[in-house]
Design a protein that fits this description.
This protein has 280 residues and is an alpha/beta fold. Helix content is 28%, strand content 21%. The chain has a single domain, classed as Purple Acid Phosphatase, chain A, domain 2. α2 runs parallel beside α4. The protein is globular, with a radius of gyration of 17 Å.
């Protein structure tokens, strides 16, 4: 069984490098990788969680992928939990609803190839929103049926912080959530915890499970202090080959993607200006 993880596509109704790269990416996935499932781990839209136009453009582009597709929200899709660095980006119920209306459920489960594949909305943890409690209740029902099944867990932000940030940007789920989440997932034999957000590829380990960070397909980030740390800063996707009791993880370079920085993207800067965010 083969799963492909894509992340941080940053698609825009204005077009640009993210959109062009995604068209190339979809063809590569369809023609070369041919997975049983594709998981998008968030930041589908370029920047603004309130842009209906960006969501519509993204939905149209996602339909280029022929394999079954599941989509999870990132901070640029529904906002940040807690004290967001920009007030416009606080997670709200309205933003989660807008996301699910276009992309489907913000948390989900797929059972295939002898594995349970769990998708979580990392942006509602520690918010106190009704959507957070709904997700916890749903997780409890999954755990009650786990019976030691091997599992892969996907969300936008990692469970463990990769490095200390300097500007208050959240790099992982809130620490207050972690112990509870690991307890709930305890009945599963989790093989991999997978995330995005950091625009780099990195593989680590927590106990018996792998931890995987997927790269962006739109932008590389080499100069932001908050994203500093080890890992491969290259556009691409992650492939998981899931066999009996074992998951192999591969970085897949897509040769036709064009590398760029968000600070050099007219579409990114224009969207930032629309929502009153100053990019320096």
């Amino acid at each position: 069984m083969r799963i492909v993880q894509i992340s941080d596509t940053h698609l825009s109704h204005r077009g640009g490098i993210g959109n062009r790269n995604f068209e190339e990416l979809a063809a590569f996935i369809n023609d070369q990788l041919r997975p049983d499932l594709v998981v998008h781990t968030g930041d589908v839209s370029i920047l603004d969680p309130d842009s209906d136009a960006d969501r519509a453009a993204a939905r149209e582009l996602l339909e280029l992928i022929s394999a079954p597709l599941r989509v999870l929200p990132g901070n640029h899709d529904v906002g940040e939990p807690g004290d967001a660095p920009w007030g416009q980006f606080a997670t709200t119920s309205a933003r989660v609803t807008a996301f699910t209306r276009v992309f489907g459920p913000d948390h989900w489960v797929e059972v295939l190839g002898g594995y349970t594949v769990i998708g979580l909305n990392s942006e509602v943890f520690a918010t106190g929103l009704p959507e957070e409690q709904v997700q916890w209740d749903w997780l409890a029902t999954l755990a009650g049926q786990a019976d030691g099944q091997p599992a892969l867990v996907f969300c936008h932000k990692a469970l463990w912080p990769p490095a200390a940030g300097r500007s208050g940007v959240a790099l992982s789920i809130p620490g207050s959530v972690l112990e509870r989440l690991l307890h709930v997932l305890g009945p599963f034999d989790v093989k991999v915890y997978s995330s995005g957000h950091l625009h780099r590829f990195e593989v680590g380990r927590h106990d018996d499970a792998l931890t995987v960070c997927a790269p962006s397909t739109a932008f590389v980030t080499r100069t932001c202090d908050d994203l500093a740390g080890p890992g491969l800063r290259q556009l691409g996707v992650v492939e998981y080959r899931c066999g009996p009791g074992d998951v192999q993880v591969f970085f897949r370079s897509v040769p036709t993607l064009t590398e760029g920085s968000p600070l050099a993207s007219e579409q990114f800067l224009a969207t930032a200006a629309d929502i009153g965010v100053s990019i320096t």
